[in-house]
Amino acid sequence: MLNFHPKLAGLMTALSDPTRLAIVEKLSLTPLSVSEIAAPFDMSLAAIVQHIQVLEKAGAVRTFKQGRTRRCIIDTAGMAVLKNWLTDRERFWQGQFDNLEAILDAEAPKSIEERDT
Amino acid sequence: MLNFHPKLAGLMTALSDPTRLAIVEKLSLTPLSVSEIAAPFDMSLAAIVQHIQVLEKAGAVRTFKQGRTRRCIIDTAGMAVLKNWLTDRERFWQGQFDNLEAILDAEAPKSIEERDT
DNA sequence: AAATTAGTTAAGTCATCGCTTGACTATTTG
DNA sequence: CAAATAGTCAAGCGATGACTTAACTAATTT
Q: 72-91 in B: which are within 8 Å (CB) of A?
């Protein structure tokens, strides 16, 4: 029965924070040191270090020390876990949507928020 | 400068919980009612309802009431936000990896855990 | 060698999250 | 109509998360 990679939830958690997502965005353009990453954020360097540690443990980022600075880059292999999960599931979703489109239109679906009366 | 969709962080948060990820897995196979989703979990129905609400607000799941039961299906449009973000960024990552592969091999990168001495 | 730079760790604080229980609202079914 | 079914909401509780500051290490510069 359809099962997800043990690292997937951790990856999602790592990417669920806006600051960490912004870090991944920056690293998408180019590798950066810890302080280069920290510069634009209104936050202590220590906080950024912690975010990078979360990203690294999750498999979103790889780092390596060069002298006293630490270079950070995207962990493409780690990110592939997310990509693979998505592409694998997408196949199922498409099939379902074809079957259910008619029903959804007929029933005029409402979100839980704008409650059904 | 490379920016992410406003719903992305929320989507990641929704998918960061193992229970919610498991719910998405189940719904990947077939649409289900709230109690059908809840059945295999060792958790109150109320807890599952809360999880489904999180997934729906995030755009991971759509629901609609049929009588006294609520049908849940994957929100393929919402999930596309995640997919698109990933595929857009992947392009950048690949290029970087090509440039950095040599440096990484030479420097023998270490994780923050197994600390550099 | 002393001062600066880059990063790391630890401890503590405050907010949010995941869950529970209990009361309550619809919708079916007997 | 009464009882069961399916789901919802609210309050509360313990655990986790996102910071902070302060003290510290290691590499570079001067």
A: 73-74, 76, 79, 82-83, 86-87, 89-90
B77: Cβ contacts below 8 Å, ≥ 6 apart? B59
The number of domains in chain A is 1
Check the CA dihedral A40-A42-A45-A46 and report its sign.
negative
**CATH code assigned at B82:** 1.10.10.10
Look at residue A6 and tell me if it is in a domain: yes
pTM confidence score: 0.87
Q: How confident is the model at residue A111 (pLDDT cuts 50, 70, 90)?
A: very low
Strand order in the sheet with B69-74: B32-33, B69-74, B61-66
In 3D space, the residue among A3, A27, A20, A22 whose CA is nearest the CA of residue A84 turns out to be A3
For residue B59, tell me if it sits in a domain.
yes
Residues A6/A13, Cβ–Cβ less than 8 Å: no
- What does the alpha-carbon distance between residue A8 and residue B81 come to, in Å, rounded to a whole number? 17
